[in-house]
Specification:
homodimer; alpha+beta; three-stranded antiparallel β-sheet; 32% helix
Chain lengths: 88, 88
């Protein structure tokens, strides 16, 4: 079975985010005066084959712990959805 | 009213993604043999004040078009949710 995992990796709330501050200032300079804060993280789409959804979720959780997120400063969450086999 | 917008920016499907290929190979090297493809994008959390949800959505759509995504090579989508006023 084919699955698409959407993985969201963001800095933990206590971690300083200079990239987010830069985007915040740029938005304010563009006239978006209502913007109060910006945090920048990563968004990954992982396509994988697994026996079932539970197996896919187990694998993605392991990927997050081993490679996709740095557990010291980042937190991750993900959603797994079944997908038709890739045609590309 | 306070809103939290979650913005997902990803490369258009036809655009080459060397970062995604690097992550794919690293996952395969770690033993995740079922992984077939990885695309890497950005995930932004934008906190903003707006009169209502429609106004917040309009602003976030404009931010995506003007700054958060490069419309030539990237596509973006977002979700806006009402939020209790920030206490930090």
């Amino acid at each position: 079975m084919h699955f698409l995992a959407r993985v969201f990796v963001s800095l933990k709330p206590a971690v300083n985010d200079p990239q987010g501050i830069t985007v915040l200032r740029a938005l304010q300079r563009l006239g978006f005066s209502g913007v109060q804060g910006v945090r920048v993280g990563k968004y990954l789409e992982v396509r994988l084959e697994a026996a079932d959804r539970a197996a896919a979720e187990r694998q993605v959780a392991e990927m997050c712990g081993k490679l996709l997120a740095n557990p010291v400063i980042e937190q991750s969450r993900f959603e797994v959805a079944e997908e038709a086999p890739a045609t590309h």
